[in-house]
Amino acid sequence: MNAKGKVIKYGDNVDTDVIIPARYLNTSDPAELASHCMEDLDDKFTSRVQKGDVMVAGKNFGCGSSREHAPISIKASGISCVIAETFARIFYRNAINIGLPIIECPEAAIDISDGDEVEVDFDNGSIKNLTTGKTYQGQPFPEFMQEIISADGLINYIKQAK
């Protein structure tokens, strides 16, 4: 399982309120949520994100409320993977449950720049910055977590297991 795309980078403590503002939580429609993703932090996000792009952030990404709308809006916007120094635990769990690949790698999150192109190999946790040629080692997903993400989330994974 791989992801490859252009980087859109943010800083530390990106909370779920700026990933998807609470005023849009009257829907669970992924396309509607994606149309407002990151708008309180970056009003140009929806116009510049392309399918397959990779979001990179600092420490404690996804802190705040436990709303699963946050990873849904990121995934529906076209982001193929989020790389961060660290994730808030509930965001980490929600991301896996809805099938959004994420990977913690402090060195990569600090070193990679906005606009770089990166490739992530989830089988071994490697991250390659195709712009600079540097490689980083993140924590690979255990096989069962890769299966959940490959199934497009926990619900589909359980349906397939029946």
From TrEMBL:
One Gene Ontology MF term: 3-isopropylmalate dehydratase activity
**SUPFAM superfamilies xrefs:** LeuD/IlvD-like
The chemistry this enzyme catalyses reads:
(2R,3S)-3-isopropylmalate = (2S)-2-isopropylmalate
Tagged with keyword Amino-acid biosynthesis: yes
Q: Which UniProt keywords apply?
A: Amino-acid biosynthesis, Branched-chain amino acid biosynthesis, Leucine biosynthesis, Lyase
Asked whether the UniProt record includes Transferase among its keywords, one would answer no
What residues does the Aconitase A/isopropylmalate dehydratase small subunit swivel domain cover? 41-104
Q: Which domain of life is it from?
A: Bacteria
Pathway, per Swiss-Prot/TrEMBL?
Amino-acid biosynthesis; L-leucine biosynthesis; L-leucine from 3-methyl-2-oxobutanoate: step 2/4
Q: What is its EC number?
A: 4.2.1.33
Q: Which GO terms describe its biological process?
A: L-leucine biosynthetic process
Q: What class of enzyme is it?
A: lyase
Q: Which Gene3D superfamilies match?
A: Aconitase, domain 4 (3.20.19.10)
Question: What InterPro entries does this protein map onto?
Answer: Aconitase/3IPM_dehydase_swvl (IPR015928), AconitaseA/IPMdHydase_ssu_swvl (IPR000573), IPMI_Swivel (IPR033940), LeuD (IPR050075), LeuD/DmdB_bac (IPR011824), LeuD_type2/HacB/DmdB (IPR011827)
Regarding protein family, the annotation reads:
Belongs to the LeuD family. LeuD type 2 subfamily.
Q: What does this protein do?
A: Catalyzes the isomerization between 2-isopropylmalate and 3-isopropylmalate, via the formation of 2-isopropylmaleate.
Task: Supply the name of the protein.
Answer: 3-isopropylmalate dehydratase small subunit
Where is the organism placed in the taxonomic lineage, from the top? Bacteria, Bacillati, Bacillota, Clostridia, Eubacteriales
